[in-house]
Specification:
The protein is an alpha+beta fold. It is built from seven helices and six strands; from the N terminus they run αααβββαβααββα.
C-alpha cells in the first residue's frame, strides 16, 4: 500500500473519492457569495484532485465568453474571448457535455473553428472543455490542459468534472440572480426616496399657515 501511494504521487496518478470531492466542494461553494472566489475554489479543487496545471474559466458577457479566472495561464495583455457564435461555444451549448480536443484527430467542431478561435485554443493548451450550464443558458466554459501524468481523461474523470461543472454553472446563475435582485431592490429604494423628496418639495409650494383675517374664514384643499 505504501509503495502504491508513493507511485501515485510520483506519477500523478489519480486516487480520489468522487463523492468526497463533490461533497467538500459543495460545502465550500455554499459559503462563497462572489463569482471570483467561487471560480478560484473550483479551479484549485480540480488542479489538486486531477493534477492539472492549466485551467481557464470563461464567463459569458456582452463581448462573448471572456477568460475570467486562470491557473497556469497568464491573464495579462489582451483578454482571451470566445465569441458567442464560435464553434467551441456552439458545440458545448448543443451537447451540454464535455468536449475533448484531440489535435491529431480533431472532431468536426474544431475543424470548423476559425483560425482566430484555434489560436486561442492553442494558446490555452486545452485538451478538455466543460460547459458551465445554468437552467436555460450557458453561464461559462472551463478549459483544462493536460494532466501531469500525461494520461487521457478517464470516464470517471469526466463524470466527476461534469458534476463539478454543473454545480458551478448553477452557483453562477444563483449569484447572478442574487445580484440582479439586490440591484432591483436598490433601484426601488432609490425611486421611493426620490418620490418622497418630490412630495416634500411640492408640499412646500403650498402656504404653510392659513392667513388670519378678521371676519373671514379661510379653508383650502388639494
Amino acid at each position: 500500500q505504501k509503495v502504491d501511494e508513493l507511485a501515485d504521487k510520483r506519477f500523478f496518478r489519480e486516487t480520489y473519492d468522487s463523492e468526497r470531492v463533490v461533497k467538500e466542494l459543495s460545502n465550500e461553494v455554499r459559503r462563497v457569495t462572489e463569482s471570483e472566489p467561487l471560480l478560484l475554489t473550483v479551479s484549485r479543487c480540480i488542479a489538486e484532485t486531477l493534477h492539472v496545471n492549466q485551467i481557464g474559466i470563461f464567463l459569458h458577457g456582452r463581448a462573448g465568453f471572456t477568460l475570467n479566472q486562470a491557473i497556469g495561464i497568464s491573464l495579462e495583455g489582451a483578454a482571451l474571448t470566445l465569441a458567442a457564435n464560435s464553434s467551441t461555444i456552439r458545440n458545448l451549448t448543443t451537447t451540454n457535455s464535455p468536449a475533448q480536443l484531440y489535435r491529431e484527430e480533431p472532431d468536426a467542431w474544431y475543424l470548423m473553428a476559425a483560425q482566430s478561435e484555434r489560436r486561442i485554443l492553442d494558446e490555452l493548451g486545452a485538451e478538455l472543455f466543460l460547459p458551465l450550464s445554468g437552467r436555460n443558458r450557458l453561464m461559462g466554459v472551463m478549459a483544462l490542459g493536460p494532466k501531469q501524468s500525461e494520461a487521457a481523461y478517464s470516464k470517471s474523470d469526466l463524470h466527476l468534472l461534469q458534476t463539478l461543472a454543473n454545480q458551478t454553472g448553477m452557483a453562477l446563475e444563483l449569484r447572478e440572480l442574487a445580484h440582479s435582485l439586490a440591484n432591483e431592490a436598490a433601484l426601488r429604494e432609490r425611486a421611493s426616496r426620490e418620490m418622497e423628496i418630490a412630495r416634500e418639495v411640492q408640499e412646500r409650494f403650498f402656504p404653510q399657515e392659513m392667513p388670519s383675517l378678521d371676519g373671514v374664514s379661510i379653508a383650502g384643499a388639494c
